[in-house]
Amino acid sequence: MSPIPRRNVLQAAAVAGAAAHASWLLGGTPAHAARPAGAATGAKGADGPVEITWLEDGGLGEAPGNTFGVPWPMGALKAGTPFSLGAADGTAVPVQTWPTAYWPDGTLKWTAHAVGPEAGNAASYRLTPGDAPAAPARALTVTRKGGDVVVDTGTVTARIGGDGGSLVKSVRRGSTEIARDGRLVLLRQGRIDDGDQGTQKWQRFDGDIEKVAVEQDGPVRAVVRVDGRHRRGSRGWLPFSVRLYFHAGSDAFRMLHTVTFDGDEHEDFIRGLGVRFTVPMRDEHHDRHIRLGGEGRGLLSEAVRGVTGLRRDPGAEVRAKQVRGERLPDPATWDQRVTSRLHLIPTWGDYTLAQLSADGFTVRKRTKPGHGWIAAGGGRRASGFGYVGGVGGGLSFGLRDFWRKHPAQLDVRGAATDEAEVTLWLWSPEAQPMDLRFYHDGMGQDTHAEQLEGLNITYEDYEPGFGTPYGIARTSELMFWANAATPAAETLARQAEAVQTPPQLAAPPAHLAAAGVLGALFAPVDRSTPAKARLEDHLDFLFDYYRDQVEQRRWYGFWDYGDIMHTYDADRHQWRYDVGGYAWDNSELSPDLWLWYAYLRSGRADVFRFAEAMTRHTGEVDVYHLGKWAGLGTRHGVQHYADSAKQQRISTAVYRRPYYFLTADERCGDLMHALVDSDETFLALDPLRKIRTEPYEPDPRALGIGLGTDWSGLAAAWLTEWERRGPKAERAEKKLKATMRTIARMPNGFCTGEGRYDIETGEFAEAEKKVSMSHLSAMFGQVEICAELIHLTDVEGFEEAWLQYCRLYGATRAEQQAELGGYATNLILQQGHSRLTAYAASRLKDEREKYGTRAWREFFTKDAWGYSDSSPWKTEKISGPMALVEGSGAAWVDTNTTALYGLAAIQNLALIGDLLPE
């Protein structure tokens, strides 16, 4: 999430369930509602041809392909509509299309489109509905052979194992086997050596396949999913889910690798976690080559047996060809003083590049085991890319976010033998073992009363046994190329670029906004007036500040990358990384949504990459995917899983939806599907257990569920399953509409605060007339979900109930008393809630000006939590002994306020931008 420059200057479950498929059944077709507030009407091209461009310069480059998502207005395109894609010069580009969401009337809402190498590097493309797509020049096929799956791209053939330890049994290019036995490796040790002596032994576990499924089989893109566990003897643990992606005509494939921690954090310390391939070595030693990516486009380029720099010169042509990786002339044609002594030149078979921090990597090599290592260089940030092979073919390999998700490592072993072994270590065995133990001993906080006292001093909601990593997950992205020969340096550099920043196609902000998706709560960036330009400047400042803080504060690491900190400590000129609930943010008050809406309206590549990293992190690390809390996320804290507040507001699908629909990422789809039945978690854990004043035991027919953060999380999962036509779409639609209907019939609707929920029927029981409103209820995606639901459905009374909440949150006590029979206190975060008032203005046409004026007043006058035009809007330089590294700080900025300011500014501009006062 550090700055992502253009591509030519590059610097950023097994548990979760099945991916979305076009064969899923739609759960009902309700009447279709009016266009949502803020959506563009009659936008040119909203349902016609769409211009598609790359996020960064450089086109597809050496990547195997790309998948992108495009939304469509309700009623515009029938299900089954074909799509064609053409480059700017008119060249037809093969494209594979499938639906990822439907409107309630059955028309297409979101479609996904996959392209392969034939997309090339055109600057733009034209996606046209209604035209048949071009066929790939090289057909992609997927077949079953025995229990294995065989994918033939037309260039390479991969055999994927159906059981045992080999995920990828072989990768062949024509008749040449480039790699074999692609498998997963896990190293474990049972204790941490805290003293001066190391005594702990390591155990190796190997990936063991339990299930293989073909999720797509062409014609342009194939996806194969492999699930299993790491096994040693009778023990199987650390479940994995690996997806392999292939594209027609490509010599490369992509791997998405997810592990879920299910060990005992006091006994199961991961010492190494990797993906390993065997690469046959057929060429003469002087025709075998090693390449390791350094900084930027840098490469360490070596031969297993080098013939440069010798005392005797084999000849200029020989030396030049070896440096280029080309086949050398017959040694009989060399200077015989070299040829006769070739056997006396060492062969270097083993190489290691270790990136143990974000700021340094080292490279070393040796001739073979049992002999000493020789330093071969180093630098700051390696690209995470390498190659091993020869003039007769070889394997390129790369790990995305290599230095950002340190400690990482690349190993080549045995390149001087008949078989080299390549390991991409997601967790380097040369680093300290992965330590997931809780960071303190509880400090005597054994009762709820004592824990609430702790909350009042460090803001940490502690409870014994709750700070467990059991069930958290992490996803990594890898890429591999089966090369016919050692690639040229420029080709290798482009492959490394594809690893570091996989190319991404995207529709423009104007089209995204005109389609009316995601609540229609955004509009393209508009600087047409001084007031709007000032807000845009402020929004840019906030994003740029956080982007730069990631780099300055080194918010990197395997488990940490993608998150940001919650609150700044002005005294130490440091974020409060070690103070309870003020440390990692864990989606508190929706920074995920701020980032995605910022991207949707701007199309900025750096915003997309920042949001992408956060979505990968918060959906995996901050959420439980196994165990009794599966489906719940963890509140902000010193460790991502440390706080005892396990809640829907963190795991909510609303934070994943934009990324999924923009990229069709299957893993993200898994995460949302897994949440469909997360209402059952309320049987395992009462979110209000520490503060309830009346006896309460979870009852499946009367579960206490908040109408704000709890319900919005459930509703987001149900909505997503329903519109994706998932396996549980019918049940999801039933529960979604039942909760909407019964919230609406409560005397005070959403202002009631909590209801008793029947997990079987999906209904809330009739509630007494009371007033309970929280400053947090609507701040974790409820605004966005309600806007979508009002657009999609006509559930009686629901819109009125939501608009009542929107109108009354910022109303006077007298106005609340008159309408509700009571009033709420401590309704803070006025600036963030101004977008509720703005939404009311957009829906209540006769009172638009009244509520629009109030919304902008709330936005600009704020309360103790918010920014204003008189805020500093600048950083202060920090240097010398005041800080660990020189940089900048802004003590007046905190993440809660930033997320809410960003969302309020973006949504208010979209809904009532014309009422913005100068």
TrEMBL record:
Record keywords, A-Z: Signal
Span of the signal peptide: 1-33
Pfam families according to UniProt: PcRGLX_1st, PcRGLX_2nd, PcRGLX_3rd
PROSITE patterns per the UniProt record, alphabetical: TAT
PcRGLX/YetA-like central beta-sandwich domain mapped to chain residues: 141-496
Domain PcRGLX/YetA-like N-terminal RIFT barrel: 50-129
Domain PcRGLX/YetA-like C-terminal alpha/alpha toroid: 502-916
The UniProt record lists the keyword Ribosomal protein: no
Entry-linked InterPro entries: PcRGLX/YetA-like, PcRGLX/YetA_2nd, PcRGLX/YetA_3rd, PcRGLX_1st, TAT_signal
Transmembrane helix is among the record's keywords: no
PANTHER family: CONCANAVALIN A-LIKE LECTIN/GLUCANASE, TAT PATHWAY SIGNAL SEQUENCE DOMAIN PROTEIN
Protein name as annotated: Tat (Twin-arginine translocation) pathway signal sequence
The organism of origin for this protein: Streptomyces radiopugnans
